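Changelog entry: the Nuclease-related domain-containing protein record was regenerated in this release. Current contents:
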Amino acid sequence: MIVKKRAVPRKLQVLEALIRRLPASHSKFPSIKEDYARRLTGYHGERQVDFHLSSLPPNSFLIFHDLRLSHKQYYFQMDSFLISEKFAVILEIKNVTGTLLFDSTFNQLIRTADGKEEGFQSPLVQVESQRRKLLEYFQQNKLPLLPIESFIVVSNPRTIIKASGNIEDISRKVIHSEYLTEKLNEVKSHYAKSPSYSLEKMRISLLDSHTEEQVNAYTLKGIRKSEIRTGVQCPDCKTFDMERVHSKWICPYCKSESRDAHLQAIADYLLLFAPSITNHECQQFLHIDRHTAKRLLSKNFSAKGYSNQRRYFNN
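Regenerated structure tokens:
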């Protein structure tokens, strides 16, 4: 059963908004597009693994996607975390092409693609760190100390997996996504005689402890508000000069019309700058008067505060 669904990552949404609103001539534009493509590929890989998880019996696991928990003064996040009555599983998902060499001697991952070799921190070390932090979390919150298994799931079936060092351990922990359900069944058989625990307290504790990561254009890429294009974007010709005329938006260039083009503009503001927006900020960003701003915000967003201090949030 999916307890926490996988949403489009906020960093991915912020990057997409930056690509919409940052001039293509900006010095950071190429690196932002590259980062966006990389993160989008990773997200697609996670969704592919979700498809395989959907074939599991509905009550076999509690499934938490993108669970982010605090550990001391920092946070750690797991791509997917599965809990059964007898054990738990951490999944770290990789969607990359080429050849992956998992080297346990030097604790690194070496990727070779298109004749280029790159080195990364070993995801095996990463999931082991997550396992230790989770056990500490269980202890601190007086939760059952379930045994925790961890796997690196490679979602691209064309990716070649190689190992160096402790090959037996690596081959047990690194799998292609097509074999994920088979691997989970093996783990289930291994713990068949282990004690069972009620999961309700753990479910509530994990959901309550989850903390969404808050990022914006500045914290993610160092982009200031003055560098971002304002205005309502035309859905057809992509210019930012749509005008509000008689309850609809009209593009002065291609004459395209829209009744809700402002929703994307306000969504961009909430992604790029702050989790809320005032009437005055809406006026400036959408190039409209205060009465129109109040009408659009009141219709589509929840509000807190009064008068000039009122702020609007996503519902």
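The chain has two domains: 2-209, 230-313.
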